[in-house]
Write the structure tokens for this entry.
Amino acid sequence: MMRDISLKIEQGQRINEQDALWLFQHAPLKALGRLANRVNLRKNGLAVFYNINRHINPTNICSLSCKFCAYSKKIGEEGSYAYEIDEMIAKAGEAVAQGATELHMVGGLHPRWNFQRYVDMIAAMHKAYPDVHLKAFTAVELDWMARKARKTIAEVMTELREAGLGSFPGGGAEIFHPEIRDQICDTKVSGEQWVDTHRTAHNLGMRSNCTMLYGHIESFEHRVDHMRRLRELQDETKGFNVFIPLAFQPFQNEMGINRYTFGADDLRTIAVARLYLDNFRHIKSYWVMLGQDIAQLALQFGANDLDGTVLEEKISRAAGGRAGMIMTRSNLESLIRRSGRIPVERTTLYEPIHDHDRQHMAPVAEETCSESIMERLEALETGGSLAPSELWQIASEAPFHKVSAALDASGQLALAAHSITESHVIELDNQSTPESVHHLVRKLLLESPCMDSNTRTLVIVLDTTLMTQANDLTPITAACHQAAPESQIVLRGISAAKLSAEKSCQKVTEHLANLRGSGLDILEESPTDQTMALEDKWQVMQSAKSADLTTVPALVLQSSGNVMNWSLWAEDVTNLRSRLSLDQTSFAVSFRVNRDATIMPSEYLKALALTRLSLPNHVQIWTPADGVPALSPNQGIGADQSQKSFVKLISTLSAFGSAGLGFVSRRDLSIEQIIEDIRASGVAPQLTCGRLNRQETPDAMRQRLERLRHVPDRIAVG
């Protein structure tokens, strides 16, 4: 089916609703991204648009009570506000001083504001800043004004345009289908009214954007229905500037949804929109709601616009938005350039500010690289090994999707499951004693939700990151083993193991044998081990092999300034490959980003795929959650739980070479949420607890899907 849909698109045929639904439900993520990327390049070339703008939300006082909305307040309610026109002009002035070419204004339906208030607002803003484009008011607000003034929508639009209004932002669309709309915003205009309002605007010669709020209670069928109506209106009027998928924000809503959208679902939605909405030139990756992480990655999945600097957007922030309320020009340009694209500053109506940028908008048939790079990629596909300089050239020059295609062609992703090992991390410090560790392990045995009542097993990670001085770890390991004899014990810290040997006046090989005898099973590299000399590190791991310990070395991505250090990665992965080819005790490698490094998600996934192609097939790659890059500056807030920004990327990892997340602490992350993310990627989650493997039962999966209807019931792996 994927081949048939691709052939349709390559031949210039329009895909239908059944095709779009199949892409949502079944298309492999990387193949879908490659197809959407090609279509985007042929429409927009290498250009990715952004603008310098400011959001001004005039009031959060609203007469409606939409279930999904966390922004609206009633008059007199704590946190309610209503700006005076002078205040709005002052805010606009701050933006204009920073180079803003657009003011974006939407807000609540204030029961005491009449239509003239809105006309005066626009007229005053236009008079103060006549060269700034005013983009304001949703179809819902326009309907409110028309009813207040007892005018037609066309009359309201005409008066606003004469006052200085330039275009409409397209909000309030949510989901058109009445089955969903009646549940989430039954007091708003209907889907048909929204479409008619924008038809009126287009017939008056005014442009507008259009949106879709997804990731709440709608199904894929509802999304396709929504996009069908937009495509039909665009066929009729050609009046839409851009399609903007809006990821649902879960905070303070009445819908009982307590989590953010899945990263894989965000990317899938943007890619399907690019392919189905063939009469739209522009698809926006709205960083305000997606977060900078997924927004940057979406530029590889069909999006060609990142929105703008924004400054003080309040609506999504009130609902738990994690991306912050402002990005600078340099932030936006960095996200774009490091995705292999060219930033182009635009007007509201998608004209480049600078004429010389038009050259970047020229259609590109396909991203290419030299024949030598393709030959080296093909060598990796078939299991060949390359020198560091050759790997560095591939990583530096091969486009993202060339690497993803090579990974698919290698056949290394036939994974039955993406694994999580639920662990209990005990942070050792200089004051840790065998007695304190024994007590803590016994407490964990009683409290663990993942405990097998017959064998009483746990995975216990003794993390030495906080230890700053040498300490003999043998008594601590023995105490841990005595408290939970059937459990698996992991020591995180190669340098700590070496210092422990020195403290006990033993050779490293002898000391590791003693640790093995005291109950230790696995020696895992810690992020702090990066300060060790490479030869010292590998000497310890070779000694661990002699002691019959399993080892988990790490591959850590670094950046130099604001640039990914591909050269260092190439050296590290080449060295790791040669070591692992000789050492069968390392069944997994921990793939992570240095805490001080700035790595883009597209770079991280590209490096992950290339690492999978480079390492021996028998070695798994683990992607620990705390080692995944995070660009979004804030931790999001859900109704019942918070979410760190890197979690959005978890559902994409298995497609690019990750076999599992390694040792996951319930203290740091919700295991249930991670399982949902893995299922969203189309791979079955496998939960490991000690020496007991468990997978969700079909009934449990169905119950989860009933609560989260935007999680796909079935999607192809890889």
